Amino acid sequence: MAGPPPTSACFPRASGRCCRRTRSTSPLHRRTPPQPSPPGRPNSKSCSTRGKQPERRRTRYSPSTKVRHYAAALSTTTSALGDKLTERAAAATERAAAAESRFGEHAAALADVDGFDASADLTAPQSLHHLVAAAGQATKEAEDQRGKQRDAQDLIKPAADLGFAITAGEARYEALEVLRGR
User: Fold this and answer.
1) Most buried in the list 34, 130, 162, 180, measured by CB within 10 Å?
2) How many CB atoms neighbour CB 108 within 10 A?
3) Would you kindly state where each structural domain of the chain is located, as residue ranges?
């Protein structure tokens, strides 16, 4: 078999031939098996003509065909995006309705606040002025009550000590009366 001299890195392809350049099936061209290469990178030792990639058949499209393909892909993407937006809008509407109902429940609980109308639109700032004033007043009253509670708790220990002293004094007085009465 005549042909070019064997290269050191040729390996037969599936067709049984070594490579396109040599078109040889000689056992001399089957010296080394292909080495595994990293994904996405061609095997550099599979053929001596590796610098040249096999040519792919390119289909030439006319500009109008390209536009049709682009329009079809754009239409598919647009419909998928529209579906997702519809799903998200429905979920947001449900969350808004749930929040509004919870807001209405809280408003019904505040019916005792002076000047507050629970049936009014609670998203309007004017309807919330009475709530803000009532919340400020409640905060002030709560702070006053906490101060009075601290003062009362500060008096508990001295009162207990005084009660213990009174009890001890009464016991001594009774003991003194017992001794005098003898």
Assistant:
1) 130
2) 10
3) 8-50, 61-109, 124-182
